[in-house]
Prior knowledge:
Elements: H1 9-37, E1 39-51, E2 56-64, E3 67-75, E4 86-92, E5 99-107, H2 110-115
Antiparallel strand pairs: 1-2, 1-4, 2-3, 4-5
Amino acid sequence: MKTKDVDFVPLVFFLVLVLACFFIGKNLDEVKLDIERNRKNTLAKVFFINSKRNFTDARYFYFYDGKRYESGEYIDSSGDEYLNKYFKVEFSSKNPKHSNIFLDKEITDSSEIRNAGF
């Protein structure tokens, strides 16, 4: 009986890729759940637009308990319309690095911006 030599490299690569996707998805679900359970709201300022070949990232920061936190959000535009503007952001009070910014909810009220620590 003759046996075939099997190349395991593509199979191992595929399995690693599937496991990575699974753990990334699981982590995203945990972040979303953490924000839902420990939700706080404040304002964030978009301070940098990172445009690459295939994506654009709007970088923003906000303050909570006297500390500055930074994060980013992938966007579908050039991002210039968001730069140096303030938007509503929700985050987890237990893990403030977990956040979601609402780029459709611009805040222009100067007293509200000042009360958020800016």
